[in-house]
Every structure is written in C-alpha cells, then in structure tokens.
C-alpha cells in the first residue's frame, strides 16, 4: 500500500508544463475504467455537434461552391447525415471496445472532411477554399473534444493536412501560395489543438492520480484505525480480549439476544498467584498467565467468549447454555488449567497452578449483564473462601431450594 502511494506520488512529479504524467501500470486499467463513460459520451457529443455543423453550413454552399451546390447538398444530406445518424445509433447501443468506437468516429469525421475536400477539388470557385478553414475547425473540435489517444490524434491531424493539400493540388487553382496557406493554417489551428489535447489528457491523469492517492490514504487510515482499535481491545500479554474488548464483544453479542436468552458468566482467578510471582519471578508469572489464558480460551471454545479482565483475573461469557451443561463446562475450564501441571509449591490448594471459578447463570435483563457479573463475582469469592481450585455456580433461573448457590467441585490436588 505504502509502495503504491509513493508510486502515485512519483507519477505527479512531472517537469515542465508539457511533462507527461504517467499512471503506474497497475493503475492503468482503473484509469481507463474510470474515464470510459466520459470518453464514450464525448464521442457521442462530437458526432452530434459534427452533424449540426455539417448540415447547418449547407446554407453556405451557395456562396462557397455555387457551381457544385447540388453535389454539396447531396453529400451533406444523402451521405454525411445518414452516416452520422447510423453512427449515433451504433455508439449508443454497441457494446464494443472504446478504441473501436474511437476509430469508427474518427473515420466518420474523416469522411466528412474528405467530402468537403472533394468539393474544393471540383469547384472552380475561389470561395471553396473556405472549406479548408471549415475542415480545420472540424479537426480542432475532434482533437480537443473527443479525448482521443495522443497517437491517434497526431495521425488524424496528419491525414487531414494531407487531404487538404491533395484537394488544393487537384483543384482548378493549383496555386502554391494556397499550399502555403494550408500549412500556415494547419500550424495555427492544429498545433494549439494538439497542445490542448495533451494538456486536457494530462489533467485527467493528474485528477485520477490525485483521487487514487486520496483514496489510498483513506484506506490506509481506515486500516490503521482498525488495527488501533483491535490493539486497544487486546491484552498484549495473553492476546485475549482485554476488559474493554471483552465487554465490547459481549455487547455486540447481546444485540442478537432477546431478554429470554440465557447466558453464563464465569469469573476466573488464578489461586495464590502472588506467591507464585514472588517465588518464581515475574517472567515466570507472565509465562503462567499466557499458558492459563491459552488453556481457558481453548476450553471455552466454541461457544464461549474469553477475556483477561486484568491481573490474574479472567472472564468467559457463554450464551445459550443450560444448567446441566454449565456444570460440565465450568469444570472443563478448571481442569484445563490444572492439567497444565505447572508446579506451584507455594499454593495450599494444590501442588500445581489452579483457578477458582465463580459462575452466574441467568437471563439477561434488557441486554444488561452487569447483574450477572456481580453474581459471578460473588460466586468467585465463595469459591476462594471455600478453599480455591473449585467452581461455584449461582443458578438464577432455577435456584436450589435451600441455597442460592452450589459448589460443584473441589478439585483434587
Ligand atoms: N507476572 C505478572 N504478574 C501479575 C500481572 N498482573 C498482576 N500480577 C500479579 O498477580 C498477583 C495478584 O495477587 P493477589 O490479587 O494478591 O491474588 P492471589 O495471590 O492470587 O490470591 P488469591 O487470588 O486470593 O488466591 C500480584 O502479585 C500481581 O503483581 C502480570 O501481568 N504479570
């Protein structure tokens, strides 16, 4: 992505006002796609304007070619007009490549230019030379308005100049000064038209490159924002969700829940972690935290969402679980840590690292889990008080008759 941006930045570094902005190869198709509709529209407009021009100027034939008026009118209305209308229809409905449409449209304009040149060659009237100007005007309009590729534009200009020179050479006047005029007019009209084509095309490229660069920047910013919010929700040590990420994930889960949905919240705390840290060292404590986190996350799958709420305290939220399932589930969590068999000679609960687990099972009133967390916290406190390495479950849906909580396990050392 970064490379892409510098490539685009480099594309804008052009020297001088005729410096060509080059679009990076991988962006060329995007540029072509983005300007396709515009270029097709410009072709249509050029034919429409051309048709208006070729037909409206029929009135000038009586002045320009009085000896060939009927031929001029026939060429305009029997050849150019039907061809132009057919071309408009084709451009509107054909689904072929743009370059083909550009070539065909150029061919149409060249046909019109050639027919006017035929009148120059056949007419004895000196006024017929007015068509030279007319043809160059057509060429200018084509070159500037049709957004044609530069190479095609140069070829087109060359053909028009040659057709004009040929018409003058074949015409009755055959004056070399007229050829000179042809060249002069070509320089005055064609030259600036080519420059205009170049500058407009360059401007389109610059516009595209700037927009692409802007979009790239926006994409990068969005990616960085996503990454930052992922990092802000993650505990770097264990790579579990941190308190913030855990609650955010839970909230998005709750959006799918109705008040009747059942959820279990398990609060989990490592037993005698302070002595563990003090005797085995902080680095060993970190390693233990990582392994416990991994074991809990694996045991919690696939239903549970695990997080590290801080220090040596973890939480797991399990949606849609029954009272029977929650017992086995919580036991699975507890045993998963005990099975790591990480020696802990300073714990009175066991000779290995163990956890105490407090679980609250209940419905979620109006998407609010705070009450469940409070009850789970109280259950955890009870599990600690009862000797640690055990699970205490508060079933808020069907409380046992004589006690609001049940201690389900006292893990064997
Ligand atoms: N290595 C390490 N230790 C941590 C981290 N966060 C908290 N602790 C330690 O965890 C210990 C928590 O101690 P206590 O809250 O007294 O809990 P405990 O010793 O486990 O006692 P009980 O929970 O009652 O069994 C403290 O020594 C903290 O320094 C951590 O990121 N890395």
TrEMBL record:
Domain annotation GGDEF: ranges: 261-396
InterPro entries cross-referenced by the UniProt entry: Diguanylate_Cyclase, GGDEF_dom, Nucleotide_cyclase, Rev_trsase/Diguanyl_cyclase
Catalytic activity: 2 GTP = 3',3'-c-di-GMP + 2 diphosphate
Keyword field contains Transmembrane helix: yes
Domain of life per record: Bacteria
Record Gene3D superfamilies: 3.30.70.270
Keyword Protein biosynthesis included in the entry's annotation: no
CDD domains to which the protein is assigned, alphabetical: GGDEF
Transmembrane residue ranges: 42-63, 69-91, 103-122, 128-145, 152-173, 179-200
EC number(s) given by UniProt: 2.7.7.65
Keywords recorded for this protein, A-Z: Membrane, Transmembrane, Transmembrane helix
Protein name: diguanylate cyclase
Organism: Kushneria pakistanensis
